[in-house]
Amino acid sequence: METEFVEATSRLTIYIAGEHETDASIGLTLIPLLKIPTAIIEFRHPIGARVWWEGWCEAAEMLDRIFPEQINAGELREPELTINSFVILDDAPRRAKIRARSAAVSPDGIGALSVTVGGLTIACASRDAVECQVRGWREAYEVFAKDGGFGLPSADEVAARVRADHARHGVNELSTAAEEQQAARRR
Q: Is the entire prediction scored with pTM above 0.85?
């Protein structure tokens, strides 16, 4: 009897419409956790936390273009289904992908800004949602950076580098945390 293998890629999108609570903490197993609406995210690799923080720094740089204060986002539709998830981030991804759509070009008149790393996407449909995510991911990154044993720069240093790279090169040419880590090992 021949065994058949099926390879599947897991993908999860978390949709967040407005202001919400986030909470970064150390879990019972001493692993950093970030709690956001409908999900708990467990970080097992410091570079993964850094890549997510870089992605949200980049998203924050786009915030005024995607959600200008003068544009009314209109009525947000509530999703029909809420899924509660536990996500484990256990690898060192290369970079975050940021996607954006302004309310002016959106078919439903609602802007969107999302950050994707690997198979997880967090999509925000309002300025408040993005700002809450930025605060939460900063807090989660700081859990790793404060430890000091991982050699990570501070959250402010990462944010400043992302802003400088964004101003200099735009979104697509940001150096990645993985490339920086490899360069540091060579020194």
A: no
| Per-residue exposure over 34-50, b if at least 16 CB sit within 10 Å of its own CB, e if not | bbbbebebebebbbbbb
Measured distance CA(54)–CA(166) in Å, rounded? 11
Strands 12-16 and 85-89, by their bridges, are: unpaired
d(CA 24, CA 16): 17
Q: How far is CA 65 from CA 43, 60, 104, in A?
A: 30, 10, 10
Contact at 8 Å (CB) between 121 and 11?
A: yes
Distance from C-alpha of 172 to C-alpha of 163, rounded to nearest angstrom: 13
pLDDT, one tens digit per residue, over 61-73 is 988 888 876 555 4
